[in-house]
């Protein structure tokens, strides 16, 4: 993201190839390449930097690090998929639940980015990429809706009956409006929490028999047993 924010990510993903040394743009490319190279070197541990210091091009450094440290990607992808599909709203507000999902989605997309068209001109793959993006967003929308509490059954059913489904941000807005109008503030409390509260309340009641739960020994005459 830091490279993208500075408009330099193209130097490490192959979008900007290494120009010929006699090309007029070589000097400008060389300056940017050295800048990106230094950013990467300064962002890794010294022991790692020593192993890549002899690589001159930023793209070579980036590729080396990616190949070296991407072996655990599939494990993390598996973990993220499990977290995403097991996440429920629970006691969270709709906004908190949606934010938690977005954090997981964004991390997963860093490992499995949605397809994009890199063709220099408009081509037939644009349609395929566009359809893939629509399906990608559709899966996210359904995941968000199915993770909501039962108190959102009505609005969830109404949205799922729409054809086509609205964009996910529109769906989020609709659910938020429903939450404000119809869902009580504490509707997300877990049933088990309620049971625990009731059991705790019962345990504090007097255990004796008789009206009002009074002790059965209360009211009996007392005798001195000392003498």
TrEMBL record:
Lineage top rank: taxon: Eukaryota
Domain Retrotransposon gag as annotated: residue spans: 37-109
Name the record gives this protein: Retrovirus-related pol polyprotein from transposon TNT 1-94
Organism: Trifolium medium
